[in-house]
Specification:
Peptidoglycan synthesis regulatory factor (PBP3), Domain 2, Beta-lactamase, 17 strands, single chain, 11 helices, six-stranded mixed sheet, five-stranded antiparallel sheet, alpha+beta
């Protein structure tokens, strides 16, 4: 009995040892390569891959609104179709050339809108304000509203009763002119709404520059951020609802982005998914553009771009106008001065958007005007030579980053510093020996007496010679 129990225990121990020495295979975990000599692993997608490198958008860009600086781009200069993001430019022109509260009568231009395009529900003969036309175009992406805006503005700007087609062509000319002024050099527009036309194109960069210009207009900012509006059909009085499809602005959508301040969607089968988004965070104002993105990818791709911009860049002020850059000692200054001169920056404030890693690398170098430096001046301690005049340029401040010149600013004197006079030379400075006034007075009197004696001697000699001459 005891032997059987002992054997049983031994069998159990041997089994445990064999199991513990076998290679461990756990699903989802790599096996120990040293135990078997075979590396068993599962290849998965990299968790830390850059989302910007995986964008489906054919063209994309982020720019900073105030400076126009490009923070990220993907084929940002390639010509692509903008679809309804075109309406950003139409809205800008309407706000600049029209009066928002003026009444506009809808004409037959609404019949020229393709049947499969988005509409605001306008009807011929309807009277509506230009303000509401722009809102109907921006919120509901109404192509009919875009056409009515174009015809109205074209006739008003030209001062002629143009036909509908003539007015639409005239407005297209206004669009191309305004786009160029905004910095869009590689775009061409043929209609006010963006319905596909092979000759109607832009680039991600150009569209961002147009959006940047539009955001300077207060009413456009309002229109671009409005996602719903309730109106009525003018002829029946029935409710008419305008609703935006821009999920990035809608708090009820999963794609909502809290820092977005406005934008415009666009889509045609040729243009793909297009989206222009304005956003602000921590004092930085950005516009992100994606063109020809895949279905439902435009929201995440826009968010990823904006987060990249906000996380890696900031606006940094390098110098401000009137800032005191340094105080320099002045030699040979007048006795009523204190011999120290403040030097200020005489240029407008300079700032730019920088990558956060570049800000510590910004360098400032001062180059002084050597003609104004005194003999006592050294490289470590520059010294000026009086006289110095208020506003006089004493040097220049150069700002560089990685050897590239970013800005230069003249450095000027904040006040006059007069040079020493003869009396100043005779007046001792504090702590320095100088002439006594008593010695000066005695010296002047002595010199006068000596001069008087010399004159008397000369006159006496002349008289002697005169008398001698008379005797002969």
């Amino acid at each position: 009995m005891k032997k059987s129990v002992f054997k049983f225990i031994c069998y159990i121990l041997i089994t445990i040892i064999l199991i513990s020495s076998a290679p461990a295979i756990v699903f989802g975990e790599p096996a120990d390569k040293t135990a078997t000599g075979i590396d068993i692993s599962v290849v998965t997608e990299q968790e830390n891959s850059d989302p910007l490198e995986q964008m489906t958008a054919q063209g994309a860009v982020i720019i900073e609104l105030n400076t126009g600086k490009v923070l990220f781009g993907k084929q940002e200069y390639q010509r692509l179709y903008p679809a309804s993001t075109t309406k950003i430019l139409t809205a800008l022109i309407a706000a600049e050339y029209g009066k928002l509260d003026e009444m506009v009568t809808v004409g037959d231009e609404v019949n020229l809108v393709p049947w499969d395009s988005s509409k605001a529900g306008l009807t011929i003969g309807e009277k509506i304000t230009l303000r509401d036309l722009v809102l109907g175009m921006m919120i509901n992406s109404g192509n009919d509203a875009a056409n009515t805006i174009a015809v109205h503005i074209a006739r008003k700007k030209s001062g002629k009763n143009l036909s509908t087609q003539e007015a639409l062509d005239y407005f297209a000319m206004l669009m191309n002119d305004r786009a160029k002024k905004a910095g869009a050099r590689n775009s061409h527009f043929v209609n006010p709404h963006g319905y596909h036309d092979p000759d109607h194109y832009t680039t991600a960069y150009d569209l961002a520059m147009i959006g940047r210009e539009a955001m300077k207009n207060e009413f456009f900012m309002q229109a671009a951020s409005t996602i719903s509006m309730d109106t009525k059909y003018w002829d029946t009085g029935e409710p008419r609802y305008w609703r935006s499809k821009n999920k990035i602005l809608n708090k009820n959508e999963d794609e909502y982005y809290e820092y977005a301040t406005g934008g415009k969607t666009g889509y045609t089968s040729k243009a793909g998914q297009c989206l222009v988004t304005f956003a602000s965070k921590n004092g930085l104002d950005l516009v992100a553009v994606v063109l020809n993105s895949q279905h439902n990818c435009q929201w995440k791709e826009t968010r990823d771009m904006l987060e990249y911009g906000f996380s890696n860049f900031e606006y940094h002020v390098v110098f401000r106008e009137g800032a005191i850059i340094q105080a320099l000692p002045v030699d040979n200054y007048a006795s009523d001065d204190w011999g120290s001169l403040a030097v200020q920056i005489s240029a407008k404030d300079f700032g730019d958007v920088f990558h956060r890693e570049d800000i510590p690398l910004i360098k400032q170098e001062i180059i002084w005007n050597t003609d104004l430096l005194s003999e006592k001046s050294t490289e470590e301690m520059p010294r000026l030579e009086a006289p110095i005049y208020k506003g006089q340029q004493l040097g220049v401040l150069n700002v560089t980053l990685n050897g590239k010149l970013l800005a230069s600013a003249p450095l000027t004197a904040v006040r006059d510093v007069q040079r020493k006079t003869v009396l100043d030379v005779l007046t001792p400075e504090p702590g320095e020996p100088g002439f006594s006034w008593i010695i000066l007075v005695v010296s002047i009197i002595s010199a006068f007496i000596l001069l008087k004696i010399a004159v008397l001697i000369i006159n006496r000699r002349r008289r002697r010679r005169y008398f001698m001459y008379r005797r002969y």
